[in-house]
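Model: Ready when you are.
Researcher: Fold this.
Model:
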Amino acid sequence: MGNIVQGLNENLKKQADIYAALCKFAERKQQALINNNLAELDKITLSEEQLLLDVSRLEKERLLWAEQIGQELNKPPEELTLSELAEHFPELRGVRKELDNVVNKLLEVHKENTQLLEQALKIVNLTSALITQQEETTYSNPRRKDISKSRNHLLDRSV
């Protein structure tokens, strides 16, 4: 059983390293979004894609380790959590904590990036509405309803 747990531990450490790298890319992506650097965004996305392929491969491997441990514990692998495994196998406690920290940090940065993108999209929608003089916009502006419906439009539809 020791080799199985050791194999799982190594797998999880590799996954934690990849998630840490993804977190750094997400932080770089945040700066690229703020700076409106599309070339940097493309470059980061390409790098992230490779890391996501690597973590997907490791996850498949992890499931094999979990299946073997599940057989030993008489429990289906999909019901095994890392917290539960760390209780049974103390050598997994460090990697569990490391994974918790890095995944929480990654989720936090992704949430901030999502907010940045949503704000940028609102600005694009508002700008588009102003150019086309649409009645309804993303932002509610009561004064726009007072504008006459017979106006000249720069564009006749949303861009």
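Researcher: Now this one.
Model:
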Amino acid sequence: MKFYRFKKRWILSALAVLTGAIVVLSFYVFYFRAPSAFPDSTVVAVSDGKSLSSIASDLKNQNVIRSPFWFVNFVLFLKHERRVVAGEYYFDYPVNVYEVARKLTKGDFNVAQLKTTIPEGSTAFEISNIIKKNYPDFDTQKFLTLAQGKEGFLFPDTYKFGADVQPEKVISILTSTFDKKIQQQDIADAITASGRSVSDVIIMASILEGEARQTRTRQIVAGILWERIRLGIPLQVDTAFRYVNGKTTKDLTLADLKIDSPYNTYLYKGLTPTAISNPGLDSILSAVTPIQTEYLYFLTDDDGNMHYAETLEEHARNKNKYLAN
């Protein structure tokens, strides 16, 4: 009988432990751990003037926490009921609900660690969307309004904007970075030696960003395009259509080439009215260090290889050979 009573108690104890483990595991899985869609590597905005329960609800809707109930209780446990600090929080990786509560009650924004990379050749519109992805409250429309007339002068680089990401601040940082880069001795000397205006150089550089990928090919293309301008031949560059109808080379039709736009370099001679993107230093330097050749035409095949031609007939043969569908 003693054995059976011992066995019964052992089974009951084991069931109690198992039940406890299941409860703990369930709590962790369904309430405590980070949601599977946790917005890591981006910014989570916590609005000012909202109640704790409203903030908890917002965080759940943003997939930051699973349980508003436990978030509220952890905040209360931390004795900071009225000290959830509004602002923009950056999470490097998913964290549990307790850690979210701790960060928000401490005002541990961590936004200074957030890097925003703007690729070379990005347009102002693309830049606004890149920043918006990291900072959900970023006013893209205001940014685009302030960026008017600055296309080409918003330097592409990796930035840490910090917590206060206002359009005015971003514009200031990007344009001041451009000024510093363009004033580097080798760049400044090359522009001066070219005898061309900074504006023309940046416009050409923005075209090179879309037409070539390597330094040497950019320099050869720059030589071709400057020569076409000298001879009064339209540039006929497909990359400029991003400012006409947003299309790329493979999507262009004969009808597109007839669109009446100052950015249509098939119809209008010379450079485009403004830069068509924001070029990097390599393209800027390539624009003022062109390689002179006998070529007047070029094209890029589907593998990214460049093919040059001296005459229109040779260029047509290259098209048939390398771009035939």
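Researcher: Key takeaway?
Model: The two ends are 88 Å apart (CA to CA).
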